[in-house]
Amino acid sequence: MSDPNPAIPAPEAPGDEAPLLDIRDLRIEATVHPPGERPRTQQIVKGVSARLRKGRVLGLIGESGAGKSTIGLAALAYGRGGVRISGGQVLLNGRDILRLPARGLRRVRGKEVTYVAQSAAAAFNPAIRLMDQIVESALEHGVASRAEAEARAVSLFEQLGLPDPANFGRRYPHQVSGGQLQRAMTAMALCPEPDLVVFDEPTTALDVTTQIDVLAAIKRAIRATGVGAIYITHDLAVVAQVADDIMVLRHGETVEYGPTAQIIERPRQEYTRALVSVRAIEHPENPPEGAPLLSVRGVSAAYPGVPVDVLSDVSVDLHPGRTLAVVGESGSGKSTLARAIVGLLPPREGEVLFDGRPLPPRLKQRSREDLRQLQMIYQMADTAMNPRQTVRTIIGRPLEFYFGLRGAERDKRVNELLDEIEMGRGFADRYPAELSGGQKQRVCIARALAAKPRLIICDEVTSALDPLVADGILKLLLDLQRIEDVAYLFITHDLATVRAIADSIAVMHRGKVVRYGTKTQVLTPPFDDYTDLLLSSAPEMKLGWLEEVLAHRRMESAGH
Amino acid sequence: MLHPIVKLLVQRIALGLLLLFAASALIFAGTQLLPGDVAQSILGQSATPEALANLRAELGLNDPPVQRYFNWLFSALHGDLGTALSNGEDIAQSLGKRLGNTLFLAACAAAVSVPLALILGIVSVRYRNRWPDRLISAVSLASISIPEFLIAYVLIFYVAVQLRWFPSVAMISDAMTLGQKLSAIALPVAVLTLVVLAHMMRMTRAAILNVMQSAYIETAELKGLAPIRIIARHALPNAIAPIVNVIMLNLAYLVVGVVVIEVVFVYPGMGQYLVDHVAKRDVPVVQACGLIFAAVYIGLNTVADVVSILANPRLRHPK
Amino acid sequence: MIRIPLSALLGLTVTALFFAGAALAPWIAPYPMTQIVGDVWEPASAEHLLGTDSIGRDLLSRMIYGGRTTIWIATLATMLSFLTGSVLGLTAAVAGGWVDQALSRLVDLVMSIPTLIFALVVLSVLPTTMTTLVLVMGLLDSTRVYRLARAVAVDITVMDFVEAARLRGEGRGWIVFREILPNALSPLVAEMGLRFIFMVLFLSTLSFLGLGVQPPNADWGGIVKENKEGIVYGISAALTPAIAIAALAISVNLVADWILTRTTSLKGGRGE
């Protein structure tokens, strides 16, 4: 970091009332076991301090590996998976919970401080009814009688917008949806009336239109109960909606810590500025020119043995050197569309034209030339590369396979491609496991480019990456498009990505294209209901966005 | 409407029966690999062609194999397992008491090994990666690598011959009291326990660890629940199915281990009976024993699956 | 630099010694295998390092030749089991559809009968020769290898890099040998060790029951059988081969354990 160990003041002036939570110089380490090497100790959190007053919300934000979840769990004096709290203090209600014996700690956990996990589906016991799990802490700690606790749970269900609050608790975890389960987990955390709740990425696993509802429900519940909260996420736009203060973390250290408005509007550190301006890529929209390169006409498709169509009557065009973004939530059929185009799932009806001629529906019927011109990049670069092949083999194989390049000729081209994806030639002999997430995705891009395709299908290629890394990948893709004149079919659930790179957009919902046109057309009102819902649900990096959206929705529904 | 779980159970049990039927066919087919010469092997090389032909007709060897299979299966279903070639005894009669003896031995071994395996499994999870766990896993690795008869002879050598605590052969008869019987089979039970314990304990440990590492156990821990409550309320209901599975699979394994142990201790059970008659090439006896062993084995596996189905909350409480 | 843990090193050394003993048996055994050279059950002495057996043959020589038989048959059976099981397992995983169904149901059926029982049933009618033993043991055991190979390969075939190869237009040969096999190799190799142990135990058990290697030839299981009467008189000759079996099994187990933990599935490509 440019500024070595900056003395970051807590945002509260001295003389305030005693804080609910006071984390002082927290240090956490873990023992890592690299294969074939001696185990060694790694610092995960390197001296972090934070304070939280009752009824306030502290946002912890950072990339994966920044240590944010580890700090959140330290507020319950808990180390997950062999992690050790090696130094510092965690004062909760004035006493250091790190020094408490096991019994004392049990009286704090579930009573004074509770936890909401990222994956509620895994965090609920599958064998026990929801209500019994939700009231368990309250009963265990003698906070309330069963009747009182259940009454409180029902009122929390109502507050959190769960359907049929009176009977909701009778169900088992697998009988309710992911969004509902996440709210039930919030109810479970709030039921024993704790002083502090740790929310660990509670909306990350949810679809964007569900996320906003859960987020609003959580925010309402925090305000209504007056509980203090730590809200952990990797999405700055989300945390800006709920937090009073934000701490930006990187590699286990505090980068910047201050009131939300200051962090969002006047970030002081370089890294925070980068996070705030993420996905603000300027990309002028190019109008379609000439005949379409890819033309999907009236395609309907279903998986074998499933009576319902996953795609119904989908028609879109993509012009040479342009980007079509296909956007939708999980289950919208957007990835199925990609499978239909590449021939993995032959359409039940309709056809796919490439360069004006119909492509054979099945992969096996397609010529090698057809296959070469249409490449694909996957969401998980990890599993998209054979772990037993070097980068040279991975990028070199299409060169061999399509163009018959061998030996020095092939290596020369591999090096050129490595240059194009802004990685050094030294990477040629590495294995995928020796690359970072962003580098892996770059190698996948190079492998696609090696075939000199005219169309690349990008299936959620940035969604598994941290925001700044994802930005780099998007910029690279745009640069490569200018150089190679390749068209992209860009499948994503993320509207910010769409805004950044698309020339035209198709919005998919339940297997249908509900809105389709150039970027300007699609993003200009008036909207259909679903597009409006989708567009308004994407978190924006500004204060008060959540309230604006909710107000907008109330007006809409009042107007209808 | 039928509860979906009932449908699943009926399906699983039907599958077990189908498997047993197919297994009986396979056992029968396995003894047909050398066609026709059963008569020869009974009468020996010097038999006259007429005697051979008579015996073949008597045994029904001139019928096509498929017909002989169904005759055999049909009789077996009625409790008629045929007569032994070697001594002409009724197989069902000879088997009855021996099956009882074998099940007695196996049940005693199970009664010792199952609780022991569960306790050791839990201890080894409780002290995971500390010395009790390491010791248990080292010993179990060793005992997996040692043939049953070695364990048996080591025990005989030291416990029976040198210390003279228990007899080296396990003779039992109807005249004995239960106490005498138990003392007679103490050594074979100890060997069987050692043989099956390692597997059962390793698998129990894995099953419990798998449950203990679930996110919902972390949730329970973060609720401030006492360890005993976490185990009883949150871990156990989810661990029962895998553990019962482990037990059933190992009991099936035990039924097979019995064969060798019975030979070592000259115990009058099914295993010794089977091995004797394999050496005598007495096909009807081998078929009958094979069928019974397969039935027990398939039965235990079916029970294991039935328990998993019953214990799965997703199946018990469908959406 | 690869660090080999002490346990694996020990396992490798002992395993190598056993194999060397098997290969060099005629040169290192002090006496011929079947020659009577002394009294019955003589104690260990300078002439007979392990003493003599139930009819006065040199026990050490019989152990060395017996080890040769045991290791030889177990190795052949393991190779047969492995070849059959992994070829069929990989085929089932890659081909899918009815091929997979047919093979998998057949294997389920064979596995529904305990291996030892099935082997006894078959051996009751077949002549007891080395070929029969190898075939019966190898084919029965190939069901286990089939299950593992299929499971590993199915996990790999659903990965994106295999789909990427299919989309590129690669043939089945490339997909099986270049994409799937290199990733399936390490669990399979570790399994090979376990299968070998199983074969050694299985053969010993059969011979001990008198249904494996026939006299005057003997493998370790057979030597236990020949000398088991001595146990009641306090003569430990029968324990010697049993200890050899256990030593071989444990050392191969240590090596297999190490291979398995070192190359856990799909992590890295280096250090092969």
TrEMBL record, chain B:
Transport recorded as keyword: yes
A GO CC term assigned to this protein in UniProt: plasma membrane
> Where is the protein found, in the record's own terms?
Cell membrane
Pfam families, alphabetized: BPD_transp_1, BPD_transp_1_N
* InterPro entries referenced in this protein's UniProt entry, alphabetically: BPD_transp_1_N (IPR045621), MetI-like (IPR000515), MetI-like_sf (IPR035906)
Q: Where are the transmembrane segments?
A: 103-123, 135-161, 181-200, 239-265, 285-311
GO:BP terms for this protein? Answer: transmembrane transport
Keyword Protein biosynthesis assigned? no
Domain ABC transmembrane type-1 per the UniProt entry, residue ranges: 99-304
Enumerate the CDD domains for this protein: TM_PBP2
Give the principal location in a single coarse category. Answer: membrane
What SUPFAM superfamilies would the database entry show?
MetI-like
Q: Which UniProt keywords apply?
A: Cell membrane, Membrane, Transmembrane, Transmembrane helix, Transport
Q: How does it sit in the membrane?
A: Multi-pass membrane protein
Which family does the UniProt entry place this protein in? Belongs to the binding-protein-dependent transport system permease family.
Q: What is this protein called?
A: Peptide/nickel transport system permease protein
